[in-house]
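#structure-requests
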Amino acid sequence: MAQLNLTWLVMFLSLFSFLATPVEPSSLTRHRNPKSMTYIESSCKGTLYPDLCIRCLAQYAKSPLNGPQHLAQHALSVSLSRAVHTKGYLLEVAKEIQAMKSNKREYLTVQDCVNQISDSVEQINQAMKELRSFNQHGTSMNDKMLWHISNVETWVSTALTDASSCVYALPGHRMSKRMASVKIKAMNVAQVTSNALFLFHRYASTYQKAAPKITKKT
């Protein structure tokens, strides 16, 4: 029975993941840059959630993309936007539960999620600032570049862990509709953050591969 419940939950969350991102009107679809869209699709193939990755980044396909750098920045923007939206939603849910005084356990669980998603927001913000600093150094490799890369990876990884902790804290079955909605939104933050981390790894890998060569020359 537990296996059946888990299977149902996975199917439900997968369906929500598909429906969560609005479908763009045909007029916007026609204005996509074909090369940018192809690049997004090929880049998203390596992520854990490729369909979600493509749908989230398709909005940036209206103009040419300057390689993995732009894609990593856009992916982090999506992650931040979803985290901020989810934080606001969780705060409203917490207020609602507190006002009703109906379920203390649900309230404490949501409050924990508020803290975790708030941390995700802060970590992604820090990662985006660090990425901007990283990009200001151009394409030259030095120890400071590797330091920036490490910082971004650490912050995005931590944001992913925080969002995932919220998901894991919620029960896998017998949830109220309210708590199911909380879990879905937190899972969406975790998924887009996972995709962003992969795309940043892909961007940073070219610099990391060059590091041993630079070290030998110095």
